[in-house]
Write a structure and sequence with these properties.
2 domains; about 300 residues; mainly alpha
Length: about 300
């Protein structure tokens, strides 16, 4: 006569339960995969967004780094908000697909799709885990927008503004150095030649890299939101300063050796800005982290009134 324990009788149902718990995550995983696949076409077509796959890896690392400290899940906590966000997300994705079929893949279509995909992912998290855990993982989802192409209605004013700023600063610096220079739109007119500040020379690519690095490093190393915002703006300022130095160096080279000499130093100057920005952000992260820790230590050691 054989007997069976309650544990052994329940064992066969454990695997289906585990698979069922994992299966509820499939809709969100499918949307994320579709989102990345859709954006990969833009990353391949637009030089300014070739770093898109790096953003994917960094966002995944940010989510993985948050996993050990995740709050307790509370499924069904805000079902109404989750349903609303899910519907809004599906509508935006549908509009983006209609836009793509009717016209083409454009930055506006990519932004529509990304807003819809992000809304659906957040809704999925909210429905399955509750608000606290959703908020815990919200930054990696938002960080993904660093790799989303910006619509021309926003992109063009930013680029033109950077071109005008860099051109103006160069003309002022050259005049201070005793070199006659006049600004004509985005062109610097020198006594013997002219130097144009095009989109690539406006610093928009180094600005994108600085924003990505500042957001990523700031989230990993800083605790308070105020310091993270300060670090972001400091990274943007570093990018502007670095590109101003690059443009000034190219203008001085053109003044001394002619416009033909720019071809030999143009690429090396661009790499120099990249190294300057990377080193500056690393040094800034070290300094701001130490400052935040020192202020925190002073606040905790201060006796209560």
């Amino acid at each position: 006569m054989s007997t069976s324990s309650p544990t052994s009788a329940a064992a066969p149902s454990a695997a289906p339960v585990a698979w069922g718990a994992r299966a509820v995550w499939l809709p969100g995983a499918a949307v994320v995969t579709w989102w990345i696949w859709e954006l990969s076409h833009h990353w391949a077509a637009l030089v300014e967004y070739r770093f898109g796959w790096i953003v994917v890896m960094l966002a995944a690392y940010l989510a993985w780094e948050r996993w050990p400290t995740r709050p307790v899940a509370r499924p069904g906590e805000r079902t109404g908000w989750a349903l609303l966000l899910g519907v809004v997300g599906m509508v935006l994705v549908l509009l983006a697909e209609l836009y793509r079929i009717g016209l083409a893949r454009t930055p506006t279509q990519a932004m529509l799709f990304s807003l819809g995909g992000a809304a659906f992912v957040v809704a999925h998290l909210l429905a399955l885990t509750g608000w606290e855990r959703t908020r815990h993982f919200l930054f990696p989802v938002l960080f993904f927008f660093v790799a989303v192409p910006i619509p021309k209605i926003v992109w063009s004013p930013v680029v033109f503004g950077l071109q005008s700023l860099v051109t103006f600063l160069n003309v002022e610096a050259l005049n201070l150095l005793g070199i006659p220079a006049v600004q004509q739109a985005h062109v610097i007119r020198l006594p013997n030649t002219t130097v144009g500040v095009d989109e690539a020379c406006s610093g928009v690519r180094s600005l994108q890299s600085s924003i990505m690095a500042a957001l990523f490093i700031g989230d990993l190393t800083l605790r308070r939101a105020g310091w993270k915002v300060f670090f972001l703006f400091a990274g943007v300022a570093l990018a502007v300063v670095g590109n101003f130095g690059r443009s000034l160096y190219l203008s001085l080279t053109a003044h001394r050796a002619g416009a033909e000499a720019l071809k030999a130093v143009h690429d090396s100057a661009g790499w120099s800005v990249l190294l300057f920005t990377a080193a500056g952000i690393a040094a800034l992260a070290w300094a701001v982290t130490r400052l935040e820790a020192r202020l925190q230590a002073q606040a905790t050691s201060r006796p209560a009134a």
